[in-house]
UniProtKB/TrEMBL annotation, chains A, B:
<feature type="region of interest" description="Disordered">
    <location>
        <begin position="1"/>
        <end position="25"/>
    </location>
</feature>
<keyword id="KW-0804">Transcription</keyword>
<dbReference type="InterPro" id="IPR011075">
    <property type="entry name" value="TetR_C"/>
</dbReference>
<dbReference type="Pfam" id="PF00440">
    <property type="entry name" value="TetR_N"/>
</dbReference>
<feature type="DNA-binding region" description="H-T-H motif">
    <location>
        <begin position="47"/>
        <end position="66"/>
    </location>
</feature>
<dbReference type="GO" id="GO:0000976">
    <property type="term" value="F:transcription cis-regulatory region binding"/>
</dbReference>
<dbReference type="GO" id="GO:0003700">
    <property type="term" value="F:DNA-binding transcription factor activity"/>
</dbReference>
<keyword id="KW-0805">Transcription regulation</keyword>
<dbReference type="InterPro" id="IPR001647">
    <property type="entry name" value="HTH_TetR"/>
</dbReference>
<feature type="domain" description="HTH tetR-type">
    <location>
        <begin position="24"/>
        <end position="84"/>
    </location>
</feature>
<protein>
    <submittedName>
        <fullName>TetR/AcrR family transcriptional regulator</fullName>
    </submittedName>
</protein>
<dbReference type="InterPro" id="IPR009057">
    <property type="entry name" value="Homeodomain-like_sf"/>
</dbReference>
<dbReference type="InterPro" id="IPR050109">
    <property type="entry name" value="HTH-type_TetR-like_transc_reg"/>
</dbReference>
<dbReference type="Pfam" id="PF16859">
    <property type="entry name" value="TetR_C_11"/>
</dbReference>
<dbReference type="InterPro" id="IPR036271">
    <property type="entry name" value="Tet_transcr_reg_TetR-rel_C_sf"/>
</dbReference>
<keyword id="KW-0238">DNA-binding</keyword>
<dbReference type="InterPro" id="IPR023772">
    <property type="entry name" value="DNA-bd_HTH_TetR-type_CS"/>
</dbReference>
Amino acid sequence: MTRDASPLEETVEEAPKLGRKRDHTRDPDILDAALEVLAETGYDGMTMEMVAARAKAGKATLYRRWPSKGELVIDAVACMKRGDFDRDHLPDTGTLRGDLVAMIKPHAIEDGARKMRIMAGLMSMISRNPELAEVARAAIVEPRASANRILLQRAIDRGEISEHSDIDSLAMLSQSMAIYRVLVLQKPVNRDFFIQLIDGVVLPAVGLGRPLATVDGGAGATDT
Amino acid sequence: MTRDASPLEETVEEAPKLGRKRDHTRDPDILDAALEVLAETGYDGMTMEMVAARAKAGKATLYRRWPSKGELVIDAVACMKRGDFDRDHLPDTGTLRGDLVAMIKPHAIEDGARKMRIMAGLMSMISRNPELAEVARAAIVEPRASANRILLQRAIDRGEISEHSDIDSLAMLSQSMAIYRVLVLQKPVNRDFFIQLIDGVVLPAVGLGRPLATVDGGAGATDT
DNA sequence: AAGATCCGGAACTACTCAGTTTCGTATAGA
DNA sequence: TCTATACGAAACTGAGTAGTTCCGGATCTT
């Protein structure tokens, strides 16, 4: 887990007297490689050799930095949190539907699909490893759910939807349906799926019927 | 996969000339044991020794009947289809809410939770084994989804909800939220959760507001 | 250039587990 | 009772992998 050495040795660690600096510059490559392999083969299928090969590193380098496969995986999953939604740059189109539709960007879909594949590979481990469960929740699930929560709360503040809406359930809804669709049904999660989900479930659930016969997002959404 | 022998040997198989009949009476125990271990440790964590020990059988007996671990698992998952909802004995209370609430029985919740644990253990395998994916879908997800579809269709036929409701999405909704809650959020899926889901998401989504302030199911449901 | 440190590669150990083989026993039919 | 068969137990084989060790070379600092 990229843990620092104990305070006792730390003075030694932080004073590289001579030679090359302790840069650990290969860490990002290794973590990325671990995520790739994880998405492709799952936790049990992933071997340290695969990760090393993918990162063009030596197995020894991995073990110099992480004490075990489990710790490497936890670190890799945790570092996924970077590069997610900025809470300050969420869409703000003036309508809930516009905001939700604006969240559907090719990059977001692709990123979400990758995270779900990783989640699938971790599933059986997650049920038995609380630390991994927490890290995965914080890195994969929470960012998107909290983004949705913000959009819904804004809609309530605008008076667009009832203040009694079950925000927590609704924030999880799109993610849970997407996970279900990808992992269980093995069907693609694309723009059409999300639009149908928004218009067929989410908006009806908050009391906003379909805006304009579902054919086009008439709600002036600046989606791209 | 409990495949019969090829037609050529079948005559031999079905004519046990002497000695004990080919009863394979241990099969159900072994399949049950496999499901238990699967739920507890996942596909990769499950070993043939564990299954044999749990079923008080010998490893050799397993291999006499199934050619490999993969085939045993597929058979075990497939045989879960038995003992699910009878399409003829679904609740029929006269209202959609009554029907949905009547589906929440302790046994159904427990059974569902077990299936989800099994699903979690199969997740990473499912993405890479189409046959297993299909078997799991047919045995675990389809029965419940189709039960919900029937209830929703009845509500449409009664004129209780709009015929434009997105039945397919709604039928999957409770299951996808339950999977999400159990596997991702690691929170309990109990009666309260389902009630809140029905009143906070499903019914609003089909245009039926909360019936009586959510405090009590005033819809005359004969649930138990 | 010299010295210290990190790296990639490869060989190695120890262990787990899928699948096989063997053998003594229990059981059902003749 | 005799015999064929299925069974449980245990030993065994072979492959794969987590984790370790060692070494030559690359790179940075002085």
